[in-house]
Amino acid sequence: MKYADLRDQIKSGDVLGWTHRPWGSWYDIKIQIVRLAQRSEYSHVGVAIVLGGRVWVLEAVTPHVRLVPLSNLLPCYHVTGSGLTDEQLELGLSWVGKEDITYSQLEAVRGFFGENNPNDGKIECAELVTTLLGLKCRATPSAVIDYKLFTGSILREVTP
């Protein structure tokens, strides 16, 4: 579905997911290894935040948590959600750009084994989503999306 047609249906708290196909760099190879090890179509997740009439993505990437316009990160997958409370929104926004909360590839590996610690100052994308939304699943992109689909959410591909 085209982003322009879906934009008004995206709500704060919806999960957004991405796949990763290239093999051209060391970064690409690392992402593909993680995808293959996890048997996952998805390599990254974030949370939609609607502010000021725009749709933003709250995501954990190197080096910190950031907020970026969704229109800059297309294509992606949109998974419907149940919204965010004011407390969840405040918590998520409080993580943006904090120097004491850093992205960690090791956390991504730990997430596969269910060993994330949301209070250790290190974070990865799925850990951000599970912690913020209170999801009861492993902190991997695939587990997050599978959990949301299992609980009745709808998945849509979003194209530019």
Question: In words, what does this structure look like?
Answer:
With 160 residues, the protein is an alpha+beta fold. It has one domain: endopeptidase domain like (from Nostoc punctiforme) (endopeptidase fold (from Nostoc punctiforme), Alpha-Beta Complex). The chain is built from six helices and eight strands, in the order αβαββββαβαβααβ. The strands form two sheets. Strands 4-3-2-1-5-8 form a six-stranded antiparallel beta sheet, covered by helices on one side. A two-stranded parallel sheet has the order 6-7. The longest helix has 13 residues.
Overall outline: globular
Relative helix content? 25-40%
Backbone CA Rg: 15 Å
Low-confidence segments: none
The CATH homologous superfamily is named: endopeptidase domain like (from Nostoc punctiforme)
Mean pLDDT score = 89
Number of strands: 8
CATH topology: endopeptidase fold (from Nostoc punctiforme)
Summed up, the domain count is 1
Major β-sheet profile: 6 strands, antiparallel
SSE string: HEHEEEEHEHEHHE
Strand content: 15-25%
Q: Identify the CATH class.
A: Alpha Beta
Q: Tell me the structural class.
A: alpha+beta
Helix segment tally: 6
Give the CATH architecture.
Alpha-Beta Complex
| Strand adjacency order, main sheet | 4-3-2-1-5-8
First-last Cα distance = 9 Å
